Amino acid sequence: MLDRLLDMSPTLGGDTLLLLPVLIMLELVLSADNAIALAAIAQGLKTEELQKQALNVGLIAAFVLRVALILTAGWVLKYWQFEVAGAAYLLWLVYQHFTSKSDDEDSSAPKFDTLWQAVPTIALTDLAFSLDSVTTAIALSKDVLIVLLGGTIGIIALRFMAGLFIRWLEIYVHLEDAGFVTVAFVGLRLLVRVINPEWVPPEWIMVTLIFSLFAWGFSKKVEESAVVDSKVSLMTEKAETEPLLAASEEKQPETT
Asked: What stretches pass through the bilayer (predicted)?
């Protein structure tokens, strides 16, 4: 993302440190949908303590993979297969999320039995997102140290954001769905870039769509949903019981 912003960046000469604020902003913008996906994955563990441990350990592993990606970016960018693999993985996560809701079992039930089942999923998910953010950062600056510093700050921000989203996912009804739709956008963006870079939609369209989805995600709290569901349940129960009561009264014998 933010390709247009990067294109408008002035020539910075030898003072590459001036690029750091741009890279930090880039990482923060790209971390929002990533953070929701990681928070939803961590929620698959049974306890809050395990969720925190999964994020801590998973993002340490993600940082190692991110560094490896930055150091080998010149080689990785030569092969479109990496972006296709990243896109396929993200779209698979989206498919898993939405199809699990149609299962008979409770979709909120823990998806992982142990910490070490969740950690690889967190690390690989961040790596798939990094194919988008790191390749954009490399296009901005060839200074590996600056890109590494931006990536490090991005991981730290991602950890705090994911922690917040774990709590928010319990409060806002549509937030998880909104997050995974944005994950689908990132996956499709990677895929379209491989097929034909000219087909990639303008940045302002992507940003507008993502902000709109987040606005929808934060539009309804669980308490509001619970009240509505309770009212609907009571109305349904009343509609079902009234005919039975009426029939029962008709069958009662008259007393003299």
From this structure: 20-42, 54-73, 144-166
- Asked if 86 contacts 192 with a C-beta cutoff of 8 angstroms, the reply is no
- pLDDT, one tens digit per residue, over 145-160 is 777 887 888 888 888 8
DSSP 144-182: HHHHHHHHHHHHHHHHHHHHHHHHHHHHBSSHHHHHHHH
pLDDT digits (tens, 9 = 90+) for 92-117: 999 988 888 655 444 444 578 888 99
Tokens of 168: 């928010």
Tell me how many domains the chain contains.
1
- The answer to whether residue 160 is domain-embedded is yes
pTM of the predicted model as reported, rounded to 2 decimal places: 0.73
Residue 215 C-alpha from the chain's centroid? 15
229, part of any domain:
no
- Residue by residue, DSSP assigns 64-126 as HHHHHHHHTHHHHTT-HHHHHHHHHHHHHHHHHHHHHTTSSS-TTS-S-SSHHHHHHHHHHHH
Helices (H) and strands (E) in the chain, counts: 10, 0
Indicate whether 76 belongs to any domain.
Answer: yes
Which residues have C-beta within 8 Å of that of residue 189, sequence separation ≥ 6? 87, 132, 200, 206
What values do phi and psi take at 172, rounded to 5? -105, 125
DSSP 199: G
Residue 155 belongs to some domain of the structure: yes
